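the two lines:
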Amino acid sequence: MASEKDLELLDDYIRERLSDVDRAAFENKLSGDADLQRELKFQQRITDGLRQARAAQLKTMLNNVPVAASVPAQTTMLAKVAGGIVLTGLVATGIFFYVNRNESAPALEPTEHTLPNTADSAVADSNNTTSPESATPAPENRATAKSSSPAKGTSATPATSPDDKIKAYNPADEQTATESTAPQASTVNAAIPDNGPSVTTEIDRTNSKYTFHYQFKDGKLMLYGAFEKNLYEILEIFSDNKRTTFLFYKSNYYLLNEQGEDIKALAPIRDEALLQKLSEYRKNQLGK
Amino acid sequence: MNEKEIFERICKGDEKALEFLYKKYYRMMTKLVITNSGTEDEARDIYQDALIVFWQKATSGKLVLTSKISTYIYSICQNLWRKELDRKKRLSNEEKDSPVSLDTETAERDKIILQCIEQLGDTCKKVLMYYYFDEMSMQDIADVLGFANTDTAKTKKYKCKKKLDDLVKALYSERDFLD
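prediction for all of em together
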């Protein structure tokens, strides 16, 4: 059995804290002592275990730090759909405010008089908001849409008749009317299921590697981590027959990418406009 | 927090400073992987691993910074991602029917150690992890954990290590793993 002094030496040897001379002397002693060799092997294994555990602990800590997700070069389809929802929602909000103002204010500004017949020319003015590609905006385009004035936003509407009902985009409103929305809003023609989420959810709290992750597999949603029972909600939004799924957990919303069966980390959504829409949608769902 | 302050705090084992750094360079570092055929998950993994390497070197006092922190971490990310790409390439070139050897006994021994670490109290775990992974000085361990002095930290470390050794040896003995 190794003495206390030997154990101290072993510690320093493993941590590479010995001077060249001391290391050489220790290795010399080691070569002729089978017990010490066994103890070194044992201590090395324990040190490796402690290092492994600490690295995992730091990784878990970093995983829990909220960061804005990077925009990958190849934006996923679901992210594009989510982006389209946000952009169209912003345009529709602009239209809503514009039309409301139109009805209440008899003295219109000159530019507003031209609204009903300006669809074509307006398209040329604001390609960002009217072209079909606007359903999949780059982040920069989203920023542009956010900063555009309501009057500019209305220019995106095709010639609308006075009877047309134009509403700001709200996922919950779209449960009933999906047919009468303006053409450019087709990407968000949503059908919300009446019942709870269609996807079955299971939680794995025991996985030590994945501590706040998810995975779609065999039509099931697996959540990895210490999720508290009944504190998470799955929100589904259907758009053009495609489902976009979100997780709501402890005041945060997370986009759940259904592509592939790999295990993905959960990253909270930071886009204010999308968060507001999701919050409204959730409130409506809870009110039912 | 400026660069110097962040580095000093990290050297002392301040995890809040590490979190600050993680957020600060998240986009810059993950972009490196994403623009080089990596996914967001891989990018996050590589960045976290690089940051942990940086943390370990800083807390152990083995790092003398001669460049900006971001430059240093960026170079670690580059190296790690290059290694990962090489690993992937090797895997794809390997024949699928090549025999895979699994050392179940080694895996079992490692598992036992992790189980025993989990059985330790919170302070014991911290003392041992700070000593063996972070390689913090006894003074820094005493400061971070609020011990009266370095002697207290040394005694605590000795007792906790003995406890862990005994726990592991008992389980190894049960499974006939003791050499």
